Amino acid sequence: MYSILTPAWIEMGSGSLASLEEIVACHDTGRVLIVTDKGICQAGILDRVVKATGKNAKDLDIFDRVLPNPDISAMEACGQVVESNDYALVIGLGGGSPLDVAKAASVLPANGGKISPLLGRGMIKKPGVPLCLIPTTSGTGSEATQAIVVDDPESGTKKAIWDRHVIPQVVIVDPYLTIGMPASLTADTGLDALVHGIEAYTARTTNPVAQAYARECIQLIARHLPRAVKDGSNLEARSGMSLAATLGGLAISNGGLGAIHGLAYPLDTVKHIPHGRTVAIMAPWVVDYNRVDNEETYTRIARFLGEDVDNLDSRAASQKAVSGIINLMESVGVSPYLTEHGIRSAEVDDLAKEAFRVSQRLLPSNPRKMAEEDVLGIYRTAASR
User: Are both 105 and 22 inside the same structural domain?
Assistant: First the structure.
């Protein structure tokens, strides 16, 4: 038995931002808050979204103070803005950080106003203000998940809220909004989506529907990510990546994650490497560990990546999943080796120990059990070039 949770309404494809006027009109009993960041404002994307609300633009407020990797206090600050006003709709606009802040802000007023009591699974008791999410990157899939990821400065780790109440009522995925993303951001966010597909497909907690989302996610990324990085104005490639990212979000929301995300945490929180790049760096080495006793599953992953596995034995075929990830990473200019991202050899063991400490929430769903010495081995392999 398993449950499948998705947003109620998804507008997908080029020009879908035009649906925003109708969406706002459906919530005409109060004002609308757009949650975003300064970069979205400076890029002119906010202006396009405000214009798309049509005659309802006069009722909009803007919260543009979202920073990368928002912490508990930042989410609560936005929640206080929502609590102080009679908003009929909260719109999250941007990458994963603005979308997660919008999710949190929408539910905080009805649930005590504090993040800490809501951390974990199923801790939100009451629905929040209706929520519309509009991604401007193709990676996090936050627009389709029941998750909020938040930095906790007190513990020095990332923590999560996992609850059906943060799934948005409406999602707009318009690839036109991703045109102009820098090549490096396109690569990092695209690889984040790839890892979502791989982990959701292989997690102990997965199911056939999540695997269907994940399979299509991986195949789309293998086909479109190199072209999107090479030519950011290629609308076909951008459309493929936008769809892949949302499918990846649906996949992890319904299928789960694993050790790749868990082991990547200290690269983000300690070394401040962008999230998409951290999970990409760890992906081939965790997959190489996980494929032991799971060779058939990872052979399928290799096929999804476009690798030729015909006429290979199961061990060699599953290894193609590792080389396929590395090939894709290198094709978009991202090295899979820690030492090429500013990590000194002397730091590797301490980072590995921290990774094991902070990844306990995700290790149970990893397809292969993992002890601290296994994590040390994975980190050493990732640094061995």
Answer: yes
Could you count the other beta carbons within 10 Å of the beta carbon of residue 366? Answer: 25
Work out the number of other CB atoms within 10 angstroms of the CB of residue 43.
16
The answer to whether residues 166 and 143 touch, using CB atoms and an 8 Å cutoff, is no
How many of the other CB atoms lie within 10 Å of CB of 155? 11
**pLDDT (tens digit, 0 to 9) for every residue of the chain, 385 residues total?**
899 999 999 999 999 999 999 999 887 667 899 999 999 999 999 999 999 998 876 789 999 999 998 999 999 999 999 999 989 999 999 999 999 999 999 999 999 999 999 999 999 999 999 999 999 999 999 999 999 999 988 887 889 999 999 999 999 999 999 998 999 999 999 999 999 999 999 999 999 999 999 999 999 999 999 999 999 999 999 999 999 999 999 999 999 999 999 999 999 988 999 999 999 999 999 999 999 999 999 999 999 999 999 999 999 999 999 999 999 999 999 999 999 999 999 999 999 999 999 999 999 999 999 999 999 999 999 998 6
CA dihedral in degrees (65, 156, 329, 139; nearest 10)?
A: -40
Q: Is the pTM for the entire model greater than 0.70?
A: yes
Lookup: tokens for 255: 């299928």
H or E element: which one contains 353?
Answer: helix 348-358
Residue that terminates a domain, selected from 145, 178, 211: 178
Residue numbers of the domain that contains 195: 183-382
